[in-house]
Amino acid sequence: MSMDNSGDQAAPASDTAQLVAAGRIWKALDLDEAALGRLAFQGRDEIPSAYRVSDLAAGAIGAAALAISELVAIDGPAPRVKVDRRLAGLWFGWSIKPIGWEMPAAWDPIAGDYCARDGWIRLHTNAPRHRSAALAVLDCMEDRNHVAAAVAGWSADELESAVVAAGGCAAAMRAEAAWAEHPQGAAVAAEPLVAMTLSEGVEHVGGWRPSPERPLVGIRVLDLTRVLAGPVATRFLAGYGASVLRIDPPDWDEPGVIPEVTLGKRCARLDLGRTEDRAIFEGLLSTADVLVHGYRPDALEALGYGEAARRALAPEIIDVSLDAYGWTGPWKARRGFDSLVQMSSGVAATGMAWKKADCPTPLPVQALDQATGYLMAATAVRGLIGRLRSGESLRGRVSLARTASELVRLGRLEEAGAWAGAAEADLSADVETTDWGPARRVRSPAEIENAPMRWRMGATRLGAAAAAW
User: Fold this and answer.
1) What is the mean pLDDT of residues 330-357?
2) Per residue in 258-277, pLDDT tens?
3) In angstroms, rounded to a whole number, what is the distance separating the alpha carbons of residues 18 and 5?
4) What angle do CA 106, 109, 115 make, to 5 degrees?
5) How far apart are the first and last CA of the chain?
6) Cβ(101)–Cβ(437) under 8 Å?
7) For residue range 164-204, what is the model confidence (pLDDT) as tens digits?
8) How far from the centroid of its chain's Cα atoms is residue 288's Cα?
9) In whole angstroms, how far apart are CA 205 and each of 28, 119, 193, 364, 391?
10) Residue 87 to residues 123, 331, 338, 451: CA-CA distances in angstroms?
């Protein structure tokens, strides 16, 4: 089947849009189009949104699972893949269901949307340094009412620029058309969904081969990512057997999402300003198969671990990186998060018009983060496929903003039915032991024939493990 990647095609029918989404990812990964015949979907549930969020969810998870199938097919029969559309949508929200305890708050009290003099702006203040930057620009107390009063005196664009210049995170709300005309929007639209660089002639001497039952057992993944896309990617890889070691700096925390995303991982801390910790990190990097990172384009370079340095330490490594606003254009180094990219790219404005609301209306789930996470996982597996088939070493780059444009290209929904949260039938019977208490998870959204998704350990706090494989 042919997958048209043109931006002006008609919105696909609901039954085919999820396959279109998977097909576009598959084409971006430069994998055999015939493999899409092994991918099937079930269910018709629809997340209520102006956009085809359920199609994106099913398609992204399907492409990642199909990549695992393609990896297994190198040494044996190619397993079929089935994706449950409802479960995929639920995994795009919160997969964990605590038993006798509650998830920490996802947002700090200052974060959110504010009405400026000429439009809306979103402040992202979960990190203390980002909150301090916004409050310094606004010159006000750390109180939501005082922040709202201060924001009202600013132009949205001017406040966005001032907060970003101060080291904070903010995004003025723009319409889709305005984003398309913006220099950054135009730059992102011209970028590939996955920017892949392949280096030939790298010989892998480890002798690793995929197992049909646990395809990624024996693969080491070094995870340098934060909320939320990168952790989703490495959680998926851990679900198929990869050993994932997440490294955070000493002072970092993201309590609102850690129980959700550390499933199956070991989490350690290192201070890359210390000689001893740098030596540990370099040892880990040199023995990893996959590096997944979400630092801004210049951040690792500033630490002394730019691309050339990483390649010198780990010539064979599969290097998958993420940023918010794209890898080209004037905002390529801008800090950002899913909710900010939704504001910038027109998603929140379109949702506001669709719902006939009087304030920005983001997607019901953080679909840009989630879809980009599965795209990163698929890219990492694509790297393993290339390494085994031809000795290629892969570098892959993705962005939240490019995923947003992919969602827009899938087309709009005129209406969507009721969407209920996870019911008893959606949950696994297994009880997960986490550092916060017992919990259950939504059942796996993807079924790879003879290779069930499962994790060796429950969710854990950051810094709970030693920085070692």
Assistant:
1) 96
2) 999 999 999 999 999 999 99
3) 14
4) 110
5) 42
6) yes
7) 999 999 999 999 999 999 999 999 999 999 999 998 766 65
8) 21
9) 28, 57, 31, 46, 10
10) 31, 35, 21, 18
- Cα distance between residue 156 and residue 148, in whole Å: 12
Tokens 């929007």 correspond to 185
Residues in the chain: 469
Residue 303 and residue 27: Cα distance in Å, rounded?
A: 34
d(CA 10, CA 13): 9
Question: What's the half-sphere exposure (Cβ side, CA atoms, 13 Å) at 422?
Answer: 22
The per-residue pLDDT for 5 is 37
Strand, helix or coil for residue 451: strand
For 325, residues 6+ apart whose C-beta sits below 8 A from its C-beta are: 184, 188, 331, 332, 334, 336, 341, 344, 399, 400, 401
Pair of tokens at residue 403: 């995923």
Query: Strand 265-269 relative to strand 112-115: parallel, antiparallel, unpaired?
Result: unpaired
Residue 244, beta-bridge partner list: 221, 265
pLDDT digits (tens, 9 = 90+) for 60-84: 999 999 999 999 999 999 999 999 9
pLDDT digits (tens, 9 = 90+) for 284-333: 999 999 999 998 777 888 999 999 999 999 999 999 999 999 999 999 98
- How far is it, in rounded angstroms, from Cα 59 to Cα 50? 17
Closest CA to 114 of 158, 144, 157: 144
